[in-house]
Amino acid sequence: MKKGSGKTAKRQAQPQRPSAKPARRPVNAVFLVGFMGAGKTSVGRALGQRLNCIFEDLDDRIEAREGRTVAEIFRDAGESEFRRAEHAALEHALAELQGGVAKITALGGGAFVQKENAALLKASGVPTVFLDAPVEELWQRCSRQASESGAERPLLQSREQFRKLYETRRRSYSKAALQVQTGGRPVEEVAAEIARTLGLKKIALRSEQGEVE
Ligand code: S3P
């Protein structure tokens, strides 16, 4: 029998039985991936606000766990030590999502490129979104952030090195479940596109007076 073919057939009244299925609750978990300057943090924050869920930057978790900044880890222990810390932080973050936590997580630019991280993310079933923009725009954004806020990115060196690294990584990023362009677009517009495409719904918050916001 074809699925749904009995839709118009007259139904016999059935006694009410409690449903065996647990009530479905919205789980808005998403991982944002992509190169430095792609907007993972700003889009992630906007998406979190739009959906009423928590936002986390994995680099912040790494810094809290390691007790030093990303730049310090690179400087004192090298990139391989940073990747170890990054993988451990990702495992931890994924374990916390097991209970169905609604959370948007931005990964650092190299995280999804590491095969073992991509495998962990795939096994978790949580959607990954590749934020992309023309490499010159990524470079301009990172350079501006470095001069305006002193943002330290150990792998931001020269324009040529930046472009080459982007080219090397692009294929890995494109394995994400969804790809969204951020070039020349407002953060809110990008967040709205992700929510719409993944069918993410705003989580209703209850105020102290019990009203649903
Ligand atoms: C890195 C990107 C950084 C940070 C670290 C390594 C990379 O994060 O994780 O410096 O390998 O591209 P952002 O992409 O948020 O700058």
Query: How many beta-strand runs?
Result: 5
What fold name goes in the CATH topology slot?
Answer: Rossmann fold
Strand ordering within the main sheet: 2-3-1-4-5
Low-confidence stretches: 1-16, 18-25
Shape: globular
Query: Radius of gyration over alpha carbons?
Result: 21 Å
Which structural category do the helix and sheet elements fall into? alpha/beta
Provide the β-strand percentage band: 5-15%
Count of helical regions: 8
Question: Would you identify the CATH architecture?
Answer: 3-Layer(aba) Sandwich
What is the H level of CATH, i.e. the homologous superfamily? P-loop containing nucleotide triphosphate hydrolases
Distance between the termini: 44 Å
- Give, in order, the helices and strands: EHEHHHEHEHHEH
Largest sheet: 5 strands, parallel
- What value does the average pLDDT take? 89
Proportion of helical residues: 40-55%
> So what's the CATH class?
Alpha Beta
Ligands and ions found: shikimate-3-phosphate
**Domain tally:** 1
